[in-house]
Amino acid sequence: MNDFLVEHFPNVIDFSFTAKVEKEFDQIAQGLQPWEEMIQNFYGNFHTKVELTENIKRTDVNSSKELGIDPKTGKVIIARLGKFGPLVQIGDAEDEEKQFASLLKGQFIESITLEDALELFKLPRDVGMFEDKKIVAAIGRFGPYIRHDSKFVSLGKEYDPLSVSEEVAIQLIKDKREADAKKHIKSFDENPDIQVLNGRWGPFIKMGKSNFKIPKDKEAESLTYEEVMKIIETQGDPKKAKPKKAPAKKAPAKKKTETKKKAETKTKNKKRQVYTCLFCFIKPKLNKHPHFL
């Protein structure tokens, strides 16, 4: 975005622009310069530039960096901004078999090297084995993780998917299992869709996508299926919106009061309108601005 503004709107982001505009506003406030001329001088050129940049493609705006050549495929490696964040890519825009890898936290398009990019393409990476099943490290949309037996464990900020060891991965899997076990208090054969779980704010009942509070006089561990169903029935489905109360009708105001309110509203709207203009926001003291006329 910064590169786009520097290329197409250099005068707007110039540090001297604000100072120049401030000076011109002071002159207008003192009656030394007509505001129409100042506004026209700026918006005339600005509007033309906006029209010229209107059809620029997003791919042309996104900053990208060519890192080098992939030794395996002989294709170019590029670092650029993608839909879900910065990434490196093997192959140019026309390549039908492009490969992608997300950048790790702390890596940036401006500073990533060819060696760093080649390491990222080693993911997904086989970490080891646990319970006769493979452990794989990778980077997903929400960050680095390990996958084992079709289950996922986040690596967080502490571990690098490129270097996390088998020993650490196994411990993370065990910790996740323990946390999940603590979360689950009990379920019922009568309806597997109903569970008693431990949440952030304490135990609760979950049925499908709906949650129900457990009364304070009840122990979550000792709840029976009949008691759970009674709680659900009593509380009802929390996802169903409660009907809104109709607003109370107000008595018609007297004409004088109504006229006064209209005048106040008109004044407020006029003041509010001032701040919708860039120049009024920068310098709201201009009494000769068209919004006041």
From TrEMBL:
Spell out the InterPro entries in the cross-references. Topo_IA, Topo_IA_cen, Topo_IA_cen_sub1, Topo_IA_core_domain, Toprim_C_rpt
| Residue ranges, compositional bias (Basic residues) | 241-259
What is the residue range of the signal peptide feature? none
The GO terms describing molecular function are: DNA binding; DNA topoisomerase type I (single strand cut, ATP-independent) activity
Keyword terms, alphabetized: Isomerase
GO biological process, any: DNA topological change
Q: Name one Pfam family in it.
A: Toprim_C_rpt
Residue ranges annotated for the Topo IA-type catalytic domain, each copy included: 1-50
Q: What is its EC number?
A: 5.99.1.2
Spell out the residue ranges making up region: Disordered: 236-270
Top enzyme class: isomerase
Which PROSITE patterns does the UniProt record give? TOPO_IA_2
Instruction: Name the PANTHER family for this protein.
Output: DNA TOPOISOMERASE (PTHR42785:SF1), DNA TOPOISOMERASE, TYPE IA, CORE (PTHR42785)
Protein name listed in UniProt: DNA topoisomerase I
